[in-house]
Amino acid sequence: MSNIRVIIAGPRGKMGKAAVQMVESDNQLELVACIDRKYNGLSLKDIEGLPSLDAQVYTDARECMSEQDADVLVELTTPENGYVHTRLALEHNIRPVVGTTGFTQEQLDELRKMCEDKGIGAVIAPNFAIGAVLMMQFSKWAAKHMPQVEIIEKHHDQKLDAPSGTALKTAQLIQDVREKQQQGHADEKETLQGARGADVDGMKIHSVRLPGLVAHQEVIFGGHGQTLTIKHDSYNRESFMSGVKLASEKVMGLQTLVYGLEHLLD
Ligand SMILES: NC(=O)C1=CN([C@@H]2O[C@H](COP(=O)(O)OP(=O)(O)OC[C@H]3O[C@@H](n4cnc5c(N)ncnc54)[C@H](OP(=O)(O)O)[C@@H]3O)[C@@H](O)[C@H]2O)C=CC1
Ligand SMILES: O=C(O)C1=N[C@H](C(=O)O)C[C@H](O)C1
Questions:
Q1: Main site of residence (predicted)?
Q2: Same domain for 12 and 46?
Q3: What is the pLDDT of residues 65-110, one digit of tens each?
Q4: Contact, 153 vs 216, CB < 8 A?
Q5: Among 35, 38, 155, 242, which is 20 to 30 Å from 219 by CA?
Q6: Check: complex ipTM more than 0.90
Q7: Which residue lies with its CA nearest to atom 16 of ligand 1?
Q8: 64 and 112 in one domain?
């Protein structure tokens, strides 16, 4: 089988660097180019701190996608740029594999429509770590039986979006099995705004940002005389790479947009 030709957007970022290394060491995937906002017209090997690879680097995403005969775009930048790159990829019949979080529901709906109109696949995964995918699925199951639930997500202090994509996806999965309901005392009042966190149908989401953290989430369920905590920790960016690899392979056989890695697991 021929290689899957990959463009990576954001190769100098924390996730981008890990993705470049993963693709470099993989037999099925081939890095053909990168999209970087600082460097243009160089080879990856000319950029300090990146592997010695010949892939060409572009600042202009449109130029990159027009010139390169690529199969997949691995998008790991920022919410704003990520959306633009994902649209551009679909316009060029390049399948997006998106780790970037912070897209709005309207943007997701628009991208899904583009995929369906064109009959090509895309994967948008709020979390590529298998443990996080299981944490979300277990939480959905638990919420059927213990519907009083709060989510605490903790991330490094360079993160742009809050709450995290993982926390939002967890809340959406729980919404599928839980009726909207008031949690806490009916007369509860915040004496300091924000004390009770963000609200999704009565379920609260709390976002912690501190140096030293990578990506962590606890989903806490309360019942009579008991609590259940489902917790996941990513300690490094390699934890996400088997998911990026799986998505880059599976997206080749999709004709629509898949939101969440769970849809690609057996
Ligand atoms: N789905 C998942 O499993 C995971 C998703 N994420 C998400 O991935 C994204 C990236 O995270 P992370 O690597 O930690 O962030 P970083 O800030 O470390 O990296 C982002 C990179 O994108 C670059 N960039 C910004 N704009 C552009 C552009 N227009 N063109 C090309 N490159 C651009 C930045 O460039 P510069 O260095 O010049 O600023 C930076 O190098 C975030 O949205 C994060 O939430 C993170 C971890 C896991
Ligand atoms: O920005 C991050 O770091 C992460 N972002 C994703 C999210 O918003 O859920 C995935 C993971 O939590 C790391």
A1: cytoplasm
A2: yes
A3: 999 999 999 999 999 999 999 999 999 999 999 999 999 999 999 9
A4: yes
A5: 242
A6: yes
A7: 13
A8: yes
